[in-house]
Amino acid sequence: MAKHETAFPEILDVAALKARCDFIASAHAESRDPMRQALLAAFRAANLEGRERARKLLLDDGSGLKCAQRISWLQDQLISILHAFVLNEIFDAAHAPDQTRISVAAVGGYGRGTLAPGSDIDLLFLLPIKKAVWAEPAIEFMLYILWDLGFKVGHATRTIDECIRLSRSDMTIRTAILETRFICGSRPLCDELAARFDEEIVKNTGPDFIAAKLAERDDRHRKAGDTRYLVEPNVKEGKGGLRDLHTLFWIAKYFYRVKDSADLIKLGVLSRQEYKLFQKSDDFLWAVRCHMHFLTGKSEERLSFDIQREIAECLGYHDHPGLSAVERFMKHYFLVAKNVGDLTRIFCAALEDQQAKQLPGLTAVFNRFTNRTRKIAGSLEFVDDGGRIALSSPDVFKRDPVNLIRIFHVADINKLEFHPAALKLVTRSLSLITPALRDDEEANRLFIAILTSRRNPELILRRMNEAGVLGRFIPEFGKIVSLMQFNMYHHYTVDEHLLRAVHVLSRVDQGKDDDVHPLAVKLMPGIEDRTALFVAVLLHDVAKGRPEDHSTAGAKVARRLGPRFGLTPKQTETVAWLIEEHLTMSMVAQTRDLNDRKTIVDFAERVQSLDRLKMLMILTVCDIRAVGPGVWNGWKGQLLRTLYYETELMISGGFSEVPRKERAKHAGEVLFNALSDWSQKDRKTYTKLHYQPYLLSVPLEDQLRHAHFIREADKAGRALATMVRTHQFHAITEITVLSPDHPRLLAVIAGACAAAGANIVDAQIFTTSDGRALDTILITREFPVDEDEKRRAANIGKMIEDVLSGAKRLPEVIASRSKSRKRTKAFTVTPAVTISNTLSNKFTVIEVECLDRTGLLSEMTAVLSDLSLDIASAHITTFGEKVIDTFYVTDLVGQKITSESRQSNVAARLKAVMADEADEVRDRMPSGMIAPPQAPRTPVAARKARAES
């Protein structure tokens, strides 16, 4: 029978299954195949019923560890009964001599007596020296039954000598055998392996094993992202996950020679409270993992967005003001992951002390000589222990709690790592961080010195956060520790995002990464108040998770904390303003038309001073870059730089007062002169093609490219033409489309891009004086190599031409693309439409916010065309699963949309599209439009007036 610490008869009626097997054996004694099929049916039913009972018990009692133990016990019973059946009924080996019997043992995670619903079953079949002829065929028969039952079985068949020999050279095998647990068969054989393994492998090799396991852990963390704060964490392999707890258990079992982790309390490695934390963390992570496996029906280890909400519901989380149930669940998850990190640090400190005590006499003397502690200049509380800061005495923090902050400051200025024992005592002294310490002038001075350090403030702040000091010293920060935001945009928890933002600012401050964001690096030396900027970057999201807007609430927090930190009233107000406006520059740059002067005027009125503009620019860069990999790109950088330079001109009074008509006339003359190698006739023809908006907003370099492009298309007699240009630094690709003008043109182009898998980020729409459209579409870059990107863009251009010419039908190509892409069903975004006539002097601005999906932009632009609206420019911004699209429109005679009833109709039609109720829109999309429309949209004079406006 299986030997498990606890029996769970509620999971499986062992006697009933045995009786069923006896019946099968007698009923099919003469026929092997029917016996096998009946056996499979009996075991399959027992397994499914047992696992279903385990699932229901998990929902009832919530204990993940018990669930894993129940499934492990169930597996033991199935294997034991199968083993007995095979030996007794298949191979007639029930009475074989003891010295010929095999032993079946669980190894790896299964060896610990825990098993997740979808986990592999790791088995070791131990062979005796005198191997019976039936041994290996019996093992093979058992394995085939287990495989046919759908189990993923990892197995090895070895003698004890082979196990010992392989353990010496292979650390993975050594770890697996460390956790060997007898299931059935010959117990003496399993006991002999355990005794020899302990004596021949484990004895005196603790340090080697520890080094190997910790190196393995570090490598695993690097592969998983090297942070425990990824918003879709790997529960098993990720930092702070189950494997980290398992590593602690392996090391404890190997180094301290203990069989139960509770023995670590007796050895003084963990306190009773820390051991309870170990158990609670283990139980919680097992609960999450078991629920994941039950929900997905497979060995799913990544806690992805699409199952987080269901797991939260299974675990009993509910919505609270400011935090949804899933966000509360994930905050708990990350706090547990942080606890696992704390336990690891405490455990490693104890290990280091223990290893130092166990060193042989002469080695210990040499070690103390080479790594002896040294005094640190200007500090009596701390010493340098081999490049790591350590405590001069155990009561350093009790004597003066300010030392809980000072230790990090001293480590920073002396570029020291932290001794694990010092951090362990820091964690155990958190109760000393009281209101009195938070208000202490010296403690706050030291903290600001750490934050504004010119070395590596992010590293020190991270150590403070991991030790629990940062959240205790700044309770407002403590509230967002381990807080996640349930969306696809933010890759990290809020505290991790803020620390990464400080890291970006520190690199900007040091003049690094100027190839990524050159303007920020250029501006930083001119910042009058570094301290205010650093404080704003650290606190800009500190009020996330509250019912009110986090920018407004964050400004209130800053006004409270500023005086405490020793900031002047002016500095405090600067920090508060930066936090309140920290999203403004990004939103204006990405969702507004930067060629519209009203955009710049409004933004300049909000900023008011050049110093604020500089700081807001740098804060915006740090914020976007710290969101996650791939979020920042050169196109966003270019938009921010454009907004900065235009606003700088406005604030410094540098805007030209020359009338628009005269500036447009001058731009036309510049273009005419630049085409000096053309004939006089061509120069006049192609210069007169363009209206004021084009001449004033498009750079001369692009005007020249467009002129050559249009002339070549005309010479070739092409009504449709596309031109491609890549921008590697900006991470975008530009596709210029020349086509007969048409009210649905942008809708068709957007649909063709969606069908080709291209993500549009901006669109400029110009009409030429001869009734053609010259549209520039900017899409996100996909390939790093220009040649590859140009081929991709050429294919997209071909798709646009095919759809416009009718060679391909738009609804069909969009439908094929939609089927191949996964919808973001895990998220909900409340559709919103905002229509404003105050954001531009010439256009009505329509802003749409909703859940993104393939073909959405095409459908929305089609609706706007249906409503007889002319789109002058479109700006598309994606924040993970959410999209914000902004359209600058007029009616067909170039006027704003002022009628309230018409505005309501526009909003209602767009909301219908956002709710995915626009099948009729897709069905009405034209399949091609090479020919101009039968009747012009407007009289030529009206179209010209609209273009000139």
Structure description:
InterPro entries: ACT-like_dom_sf (IPR045865), ACT_dom (IPR002912), HD/PDEase_dom (IPR003607), HD_domain (IPR006674), NT_sf (IPR043519), PII_UdlTrfase/GS_AdlTrfase (IPR013546), Polymerase_NTP_transf_dom (IPR002934), UTase/UR (IPR010043). Residues 494-610 form the HD domain. Belongs to the GlnD family. Residues 923-949 are annotated as: Disordered. The chain is an alpha+beta fold and 949 residues long. Helices cover 57% and strands 11% of the residues. It folds into 5 domains: 14-203, Beta Polymerase, domain 2 (2-Layer Sandwich), CATH 3.30.460; 222-351, Four Helix Bundle (Hemerythrin (Met), subunit A), CATH 1.20.120; 394-473, Hydrophobic Seed Protein (Orthogonal Bundle); 481-655, Hypothetical protein af1432 (Orthogonal Bundle), CATH 1.10.3210; 719-943, no CATH class. It is built from 43 helices and 16 strands. The strands form 3 sheets. An 8-stranded antiparallel β-sheet has the order 9-10-12-11-15-16-14-13, with helices on both faces. It has a 4-stranded mixed β-sheet with strand order 3-2-1-4, with helices on both faces. A hairpin with a 4-residue loop joins strand 11 (760-767) and strand 12 (772-780). Helix 37 crosses helix 38 and helix 37 runs antiparallel to helix 40 (856-866).
Kindly summarize this structure in a few lines.
The protein is an alpha+beta fold and 949 residues long.
